[in-house]
Amino acid sequence: MDWQKLNGEILYKVSRYLNFAERAIDAKQVDEVASCGVSRQRAVELLLANYLDLDETGQRQYLPYMLKRLDKTDYQNDEYYANISFDKATKGNWQLKRDFYAPYEIFVQDDFAYDFQKVFPQLGYFEETFEYPAVYQDGRLWMSVTPNEINTMREPIGRVKGKVLTFGLGLGYFAYMCSIKQDVESVTVVEKDKSVIELFEEIILPQFESKDKIRIINDDAYAYLDKMQDKEYDYAFVDIYHDAGDGLEVYKKFKQRLGKFRRTQFDFWIEKTLKYYL
């Protein structure tokens, strides 16, 4: 079996679906398929298999490990979601607002998973509408706090301690979750866009209970990295890309510059996914 070829075909089909038909499945279709005697979860699997045009191998070897029904309460109880509220706001060409996943809308919900030669994109859906905060730049989604961000940052957040540095501010999810940890002394954020910083400082930062731990530096990530000294920070997290498409070059450039660091631990957002494309 040529698993590398199959992996590529699965990822291509999933990518096309997510880019052009992510809301193709709706409650009416799920009701119709479930009325034939299968569970609603199985109905979503069958519908997705049809839209992806998966053959028997794809349905058996990939689909069960790709798709998951998510529970809203698992995310609504997240500390950031529970404690940070969002109202519409605009700063420069940036707009802060609430976006949503429609019922049964398929989306990426975690980093790639692997099983020997096979790679599995991690997809999820909710059975109800799910709202999340998002920032748009010139009408294009750039930053958000979705289940994907929460899931993919869980492990890095679990490792942080001492003096923490993060490249990329976004909506401050990573900074917030680090700041509430007792073993985190400080959280320094490097962000190059002043409008993003102003939006964050005016609306989001005042809601942080540990805002005194936060320091924001307006600088280019590569320029700041070149100035950094080893052990200046105990831990550094890199998240200045939108997805694997633009993240791969960032990953390569950072890796080339990390030779001088021996006592600072570096992590990269969605690193498992990035490594697949190397």
How much of the sequence lies in strands comes to: 25-35%
**CATH homologous superfamily of the domain at 149-276, by name?**
Vaccinia Virus protein VP39
Largest sheet: 5 strands, parallel
Give the topology string: H per helix, E per strand.
HHHHHEHHEEEEEEHEHEHEHEHEH
Q: What level of helicity do the residues show?
A: 40-55%
Sum up the overall morphology in one term: globular
* Spatial order of strands in the largest sheet: 10-9-8-11-12
Write the CATH fold name of the domain at 149-276: Rossmann fold
Number of extended strands: 12
Q: What radius of gyration results from the CA coordinates?
A: 20 Å
Q: Report the average pLDDT across residues.
A: 95
CATH architecture of the domain at 149-276: 3-Layer(aba) Sandwich
Describe this structure in words.
With 278 residues, the protein is of the alpha/beta class. Among the domains are: 1-66, no CATH class; 149-276, Rossmann fold. Helix content is 42%, strand content 26%. The relative contact order is 0.11.
In short:
By secondary structure, the chain is α/β, with parallel strands linked by helices. It has helices at 3-20, 27-34, 40-52, 56-61, 63-66, 72-76, 79-83, 147-159, 173-179, 194-204, 221-227, 244-256, 271-276, and strands at residues 67-69, 89-91, 94-101, 107-115, 118-125, 130-137, 140-144, 162-167, 184-191, 214-218, 235-238, 265-268. Strand 6 and strand 7 (140-144) form a beta hairpin.
